[in-house]
Write a structure and sequence with these properties.
It contains five helices and no strands.
Amino acid sequence: MQRRPVSFLAALSAHCDALEVAASRGEFALAVLDLHRQILRLSGNRFLQSLCDPLQTALYSLLASETEDQKRGPSKMAKVVALHSAIVRAVENREPEAAKKAMKAVLERSSDECLRSRGMG
């Protein structure tokens, strides 16, 4: 895994911390979006970043609408925080396989949530 400046890693941690202390569901959605953007910046892959811009917009819309659903209580948000924190820890510890595994867990959960929210899961 490529070495990144401490400032990038500190920004990752700060975004993850923002997830934990989000005072509203909208703040939570923004914190997730900011964390994803920081991870994309860390990748250094401009092509991937350009592909993900439209996806990030769609993700925010999905998160904002889903988080307004009162069924999404603190326990579900805590799970999202824990999954994203695992990614941050792996990146900070320079453990690419752990980061890959943690990211896969986030993507699988997101996919499951999308399917469930559409009555398909």
